[in-house]
Sequence to fold (332 residues):
Amino acid sequence: MTTNTKNISEVEISTLPKGKILNKELLMKFAPLISLVLLMIFFSFGTPYFLNTSNLLTVALQTSVIGIMAIGVTYVIITSGIDLSLGSVMAFSGVAVGLAASIGLPLWMCVITGALAGLLCGCLSGFLVTRGAIPPFIATLGLMMSVRGINLVLTDGRALYFQDYPTLRFISQGSLFDFIPYPVIYLTVIALISAYVLKRTVIGRYIYAVGSSEEAAHLSGIKVDKVKMFVYSFCGLLTGIAGVILTSRLNSGQPTVGVGYELEAIAAVIIGGTSLMGGIGTIGGTIIGAFIMGILKNGLNLMGVSQFWQMVAMGIVVIAAVYLDTLRKKMK
Fold:
């Protein structure tokens, strides 16, 4: 009986259309990149202003902040976690820069304060998830509301302006060779470093292992809690950096800024092919996902589509990305 069963199984496997399955897997793997190219082709025909160099640089500049945040949350989602506090933490970073400036600290210390404020929030998220054993969704949701309230308490609901720091705006408004905006350079450097850490280091392998199977990772000797603490802290640090860049662009620390940014960052990660179930994801895919979001918004704006329909389009894109992830899981 056993021999017959084995023979039948071998025959069934040998008759599977392996070429078709491989083609489908390749298609799904490169789906984000193909989608990005198709979007660019579509908008290049839809509006004559899309392929202008100035417009493409504007898209890159607008995508940089979301892209930096998305890189951080990619690490979190690969471990099958989530972080909903990004928008509030971004605002907290700006408020921290404003408070540091109000007591007369040098500009470089104000910038570091903003980045460390994000790191602090990330560490708190990691602590709640690991030591508090609170599900990431609940822990970061609670932190999102609490940090937003703290921002309003610290500023009395008013923006903090930087009249004495005119050079602050060059962090986001300056450009290399009067051509490439500085935020695009920040995004590129952070993406390269993050991709290297994820793919070429031990901690990167641990991140994938925890996301694939937390129990198996623990049995393999991996300190799961330390890995989770690292990814949430790293996400908080990058969110703090993004907050400093946005604060520089606005030339003020605003306690209400960043609402909805966490959803855009998470959407960029999902569109880029990172699985919500964990264990799968790349930084390159996340960057592509961020640019898909940025190009979609920019192209629809140039074509005169209302923001209401833009929100509908964004939602459809996210649903399609999650559906592709489901198909990928079924095929495997």
In short: Confidence is low (pLDDT under 50) at residues 1-16. Strands lie at 160-161, 175-176, 180-181, 252-253. Residues 224-250 form the longest helix (27 residues). The domain at 32-327 is CATH 1.10.3470 (ABC transporter involved in vitamin B12 uptake, BtuC).
